[in-house]
Amino acid sequence: MTEKKATLKVDGHEALELSVYTPTLGQEVVDVSPLAAKGLFTFDPGFQSTASCDSTITYIDGGKGQLLHRGYSIEELASKSDYMEVCYALLNGELPNAEQKAEFVQEIKARAEVPEQLKAVFNGFTRDAHPMGVLLGALGALSTYHHEGLDINNAEHRKEVALNLVAKLPTLSAMCYKHSIGEDFVAPNAELSHAENFLTMLFGGTNSEYQVSPVVAQAMDRIFILHADHEQNASTSTVRMAGSSGANPYAAIAAGVATLWGPAHGGANEAVLKMLDEIGDVSNIDKFIAKAKDRNDPFKLMGFGHRVYKNYDPRASVMRESCHQVLGELGIQDPKLELAMKLEEIALNDEYFVERKLFPNVDFYSGIVLKALGIPVSMFTVIFALSRTVGWIAHWEELIGNPYRIARPRQLYTGSDERAFVEIDKR
Ligand code: SDX
């Protein structure tokens, strides 16, 4: 990072010279860390203007609608690669050659099973428990199987954590679904690809003749790729924050799952389908657009807008293309797709959305594809979490594998000045 300088002049304080670092791509950053020693903090609720770390994993250009993983564009990865290759690249920095890929795939397959006793955890949840809450609990349980003896300062231990999580998330995710429908768990099958195995654990069963269609498996794998990582989003930042205290990495990933669950984040894919259900018909679109624009109405157009993208989310473009391809190949006519496309068309021509640069994000079309693949709406965010685990753990590795300090933000205190305690009979 080459250094330029910035000078900060604050009334009542001496002028401060701060370093400015130049990135490979994107915005320059001002190093404000010396401010605390000078009695000053920066103030940036929501971290709109804050770079929390330096990272080599993913780059997003919100203005261009560009997304790179280790320098490779999401468009090329989605069309030419597969999720196992993307996992390898996110974890190791480069796309694998054939030999490296074969070895990596085997390492993942070898870790797909979960501890037998852990399966009992699922009995603690009602059938209608939200699968994200169940996944959260299962990950908390998994952390206890990998705690004593885990040395996060040992690179080999950290590699094992990454392989274990990428391997076990599909199994745990499928178990969440099987539990919700009261069916037996289906064991992982090493003969199948990552996506085929997940779909079989989801829809297969001891008496089932379920056969994964290549179209569905490829679409599932593409969805895994599109959700794999996205720089310092809320859930990834949570994983880094938890990791910075030296917390158990499985527990840190559970914290990421908790954050992703929110409808403003990964929960949006489920919320989009519910919104389309609520809109119901093209004739109601204007009413909902008006609600979305009304400051006094908490309703937001789910699947629209993004903190970083002020252009089309490149993942949404790939997802929309996938929608047409999957529905076409499966011969599915889903009125929700027409409704979504009409909604998009109207919103993209409405001044309110244009002025605020609100475009469809990854969640806008993903639900329609997932529904076409037979995935129940309640499992949409679980699949987002399954896919994103590799990104979370890649960022955890980048943090723990380099010198780091505990993340401890400060605040602008606006509470009461010091005051004397008052006995209760005098209050
Ligand atoms: C993901 O960070 C990531 O990278 C996340 C993610 C990833 O891969 O990890 O990309 C995944 O979380 C995608 C986003 C999914 N969420 C949704 O689709 C929920 C709907 N979107 C909004 O809640 C919102 O757009 C956010 C949360 C995504 C972004 O919120 P910001 O950056 O805080 O933006 P904002 O709320 O300050 O909005 C700016 C303006 C406001 O209006 P004004 O105050 O200027 O009048 O735009 C309006 C907002 O009211 N606005 C919307 C809107 N999104 C923003 N108005 C209506 N509908 C919307 N969807």
> What is the CATH C-level name of the largest domain?
Mainly Alpha
What hetero molecules are in the model? s-citryldethia Coenzyme A
CATH topology type of the largest domain:
Citrate Synthase, domain 1
Secondary structure tally, helices: 16
How many individual β-strands? 6
Q: What is the typical, i.e. mean, pLDDT?
A: 96
Shape: globular
What would you report as the Rg, rounded to the nearest angstrom? 23 Å
> Which regions contain 5 or more consecutive residues with pLDDT less than 50?
none
CATH superfamily of the largest domain: Citrate Synthase, domain 1
Proper CATH architecture of the largest domain: Orthogonal Bundle
From the N-terminal CA to the C-terminal CA, the straight-line distance is: 58 Å
Structural class: mainly alpha
Helix content: 40-55%
Largest sheet: 3 strands, antiparallel
Give a brief outline of the structure.
This protein has helices spanning 74-80, 83-92, 98-109, 131-145, 155-180, 194-203, 214-226, 234-243, 249-260, 268-279, 285-293, 314-330, 335-348, 351-355, 362-372, 380-400; strands spanning 2-8, 16-22, 29-30, 58-61, 66-69, 72-73. With 427 residues, it is mainly α.
Structural features, described:
The protein folds into 2 domains: 2-51, Single Sheet (Rubrerythrin, domain 2); 52-403, Citrate Synthase, domain 1. The protein has 427 residues and is mainly alpha-helical. The strands form 2 sheets. The protein has a 3-stranded antiparallel β-sheet with strand order 1-2-3, with no helix packed on it. Strands 4-5-6 form a 3-stranded antiparallel β-sheet. Helix 2 (83-92) packs parallel to helix 16, helix 8 (234-243) packs antiparallel against helix 9 and helix 8 (234-243) packs across helix 16. The radius of gyration is 23 Å and the shape is globular. It has helices spanning 74-80, 83-92, 98-109, 131-145, 155-180, 194-203, 214-226, 234-243, 249-260, 268-279, 285-293, 314-330, 335-348, 351-355, 362-372, 380-400, and strands spanning 2-8, 16-22, 29-30, 58-61, 66-69, 72-73. S-citryldethia Coenzyme A is lined by residues 46, 230, 233, 264-266, 268, 292, 300-308, 356, 358, 361-363. The site of s-citryldethia Coenzyme A (SDX) has 22 residues, from helix 15.
